[in-house]
Write a structure and sequence with these properties.
By secondary structure, the chain is an alpha/beta fold. About 25% of the residues lie in helices and about 15% in strands. The protein has 11 helices and 11 strands. The strands form 2 sheets. The protein has an 8-stranded mixed β-sheet with strand order 4-3-2-1-10-11-9-8, with helices on both faces. Strands 5-7-6 form a 3-stranded parallel β-sheet, with no helix packed on it. Helix 1 links the parallel strand 1 and strand 2. The radius of gyration is 18 Å and the shape is globular. The chain starts with about 40 loop residues before the first strand and ends in a 6-residue tail after the last helix. The relative contact order is 0.22. This is Alpha/beta hydrolase-fold protein. Keywords: Hydrolase, Signal. It comes from Halomonas pelophila. One of its GO terms (molecular function) is hydrolase activity.
Length: about 350
Amino acid sequence: MRPVRCLSAVGLCLTLGLAAPAVAQSTPDTLPRLALAADDTSVIGVSSGGYMATQLAVAWPERFSGLGVLAAGPWACARGSLSLALGQCMGTHKGLPDLEILADRYRDYRERDLVGGAEALAELRVFIWQGAEDDTVAPALGQALAEQFRGWLAAPDEQLSRVESENAGHGWPVAADTTASVQDLADCRSGGGTHLLACDRDIAGEALGWLHGDLAPPETQQSAGQLIAFDQADFDARGLGDTGYLYVPERCEAGGCALTVALHGCAMDAEQIGETFVRHSGLNGWAAANRRVVLYPQAETSLPNPQGCWDWWGFAESAWQLDPLHDTRQGTQTSALMAMIERLQASPEAP
């Protein structure tokens, strides 16, 4: 992501972050089986990662208890079109997305068993954040996402939280006491750089607190745990990087903990900003204090996806599908991400 408005696939700009004490090893391991709880999984993403997080939650709502979305618009907004992605799902010069059209798309997918059931979707807890000065993804799109979920949730006043921060731009806000260096932080309003915004706002704690209830605060000292680099080759899908990351608190090494999946935005993958996101978003400290593992999958840059975004407009499918199913259970990236979740939730004894 860049501080200027994006005008091409290069500009499908979207973000995220974290904090951890351990150093990831240079040779990636296989993603472990940790017997993580299957009934307390959340997914949170920023920008392209926010769009992808919503795709996952709508495709498999029965597999998630909570969804966090930062700086992104409504589910299926792009409908497989780069033109719509740029003109209605980032900027709005083509107008706001028509939620009735998206509702028809959901009903069609539901009839074809390409997304989860309405009953499971209605039970999600949802946290939505947007910067009021976001000039990459218009704030009105966050409002549209909230409106979409109000139509899906059983008790939206109790299950949905939408927060808009004044004087904040596009990215992932972090608290003032972050362990990140000043050079790793972007200006709260203008963004850019790593897209970790120096807004003095612990958005990681706010989101996890809404999705999972009262949480123990992070310890003041660095939390005991490991940041593990793992080989993503087992989950091969177009647009995935070679290496992903996993934060495992010391108390979770024997299993039995819960899982949060954290999806970076465009230009926030390790290839472009190193381990800044996976160390300094604030998620790791909360995870260590509350027996949660954090999975940080990684997208990669390519000719059709030069900013390393997650596939929310269909680039990973469009080479062979006229109507790409990237936003369904059949999506190549959504399938790969779910396979990672299933691996972590499997027993270590599983073959």
